[in-house]
Amino acid sequence: MQTNRYSSIIQEFETWIKESAPKSKYVVSSRVRLARNLSLYPFPQVAHRKDLKKVAELILEAIHQSRTLRNYVIFPMEHLSEVDRQLLREKYLVSFQQSRGEEARWAVITKDDLTSLMINEEDHLRLQNIQYGFQLRASWQRVKTIDLELQSLLDFAYDEKWGFLTACPTNTGTGMRASVMMFLPGLMLSRKIKKVLKELTDSGFAVRGTYGEGSEARGYLFQISNQVTLGRTESEILKTLEKTCQVIAMREKFARQYLLEKSGRELETKIILAVRDLKERKKLSLSESLHALSLVRLGICLKMITGVSLSTIDELFILVQPAHIITYKLFKKKQSSEVARADLIRQYLMACST
Fold first, then answer.
1. Model confidence over 152-188: pLDDT tens digits?
2. What's the distance, CA 95 to chain centroid?
3. Fewer C-beta neighbours within 10 Å, C or N terminus of the chain?
């Protein structure tokens, strides 16, 4: 695969995962996203090519004028390779829809904190920031600052009664979608997760898989977000989600304690075998690696494993994804993805023990 300027930049992006984060035993990431549309232009789904190009031109000009946005990269999605688009998605920097690379779609990403601006996705503009751990407020402050500046530079579609107008009615109002990626092995293994998920959906929350809408829950990871934005302020949305996640984290804590009391030795054996698989197996599929990494993550949380940080495992959750493995293979001799994945994991774990 031939690399170009965009490929090298994407591969140089560090992940948003830091060495430590608040409540990382239960929460992997926090994200706040805002949906905005320009007045006088149709939504992307029904817009003609010339309208999409004009919308992109106006938004990109506003970004160039911004004093808040610095050190950013502009990606024309249609000109990126399929692997590069997938890399951005696996890093959680663009959505699945944006990663399809349709015409007149753009992504603008800041190098410093990996804030993303998706142009002509479902809405004219999707602005998002992701933080490691339970940091919804920090994520909100970042997107709020950018949004306020862009409001002074662009004419966003806004109605005094309905708020910000969006392509999907559930986003109308604040246009905010706040989400938290929670790690819930205790509730999964104790078979209590179905009850918790039902309570969440009954309470008006959306529960999705690892990569959002339409994706599966892998590695005991669940994305929990507000479902409705109309009639609620941004502060109310964040407060409700924070409170709910704190309750779920407490239930997860009790579920882990229950597992230790009921089948602690059996669980420890599974975790030890997972560590051995990651260190010794010559081939690993994506599902096998995610399962083993999840058990190791649980082992770290329960203090059954030392010498490996949660951040290392969380970074591996991203690095073992298909597009990342393809780029990793570029620097190695020709080998299958399963061999390359096992090799990458082994190298990371060996580096931790040195």
1. 999 999 999 999 999 999 899 999 999 999 999 999 9
2. 9
3. C
Q: 255-272: per-residue pLDDT in tens?
A: 999 999 999 999 999 999
The structure tokens listed for 333 are 């001799």
Asked whether residue 307 carries a pLDDT value surpassing 70, the answer given is: yes
Q: E strands, 193-249, where?
A: 205-208, 221-226
pLDDT at 24: 92
Helix, strand or coil, per DSSP, at residue 219: coil
Structural domains of the chain, with CATH: 5-252 (3.30.590.10), 263-353 (no CATH)
Closest-CA residue to 197 (of 211, 215, 182): 182
Query: 210 with 218: CB under 8 angstroms?
Result: yes
**Residue 354: helix, strand or coil by DSSP?**
coil
Which pair of structure tokens corresponds to residue 339? 């061999």
Quickly state the pLDDT bin for 352 (edges 50, 70, 90).
confident
Which structure tokens are listed for 136? 């919804």
How far is C-alpha 225 from the geometric centre of its chain's CA atoms? Answer: 12
Q: What is the DSSP letter of 168?
A: S
The total of other beta-carbon atoms located within 10 Å of residue 256's CB is: 22
- DSSP for 63-99 reads HHH-SS--SEEEEEGGGS-HHHHHHHHHTTSS-TTGG
Which DSSP letter does residue 33 get? E
Cα–Cα separations (whole angstroms), residue 285 to 114, 220, 288, 321, 332: 28, 17, 5, 10, 18
Cα–Cα dist 41/185, whole Å = 45
Q: Is 131 helix (H, G, I), strand (E, B) or coil?
A: strand
Looking up tokens 């929350």 gives 205
Q: What is the pLDDT of residues 114-166, one digit of tens each?
A: 999 999 999 999 999 999 999 999 999 999 999 999 999 999 999 999 999 99
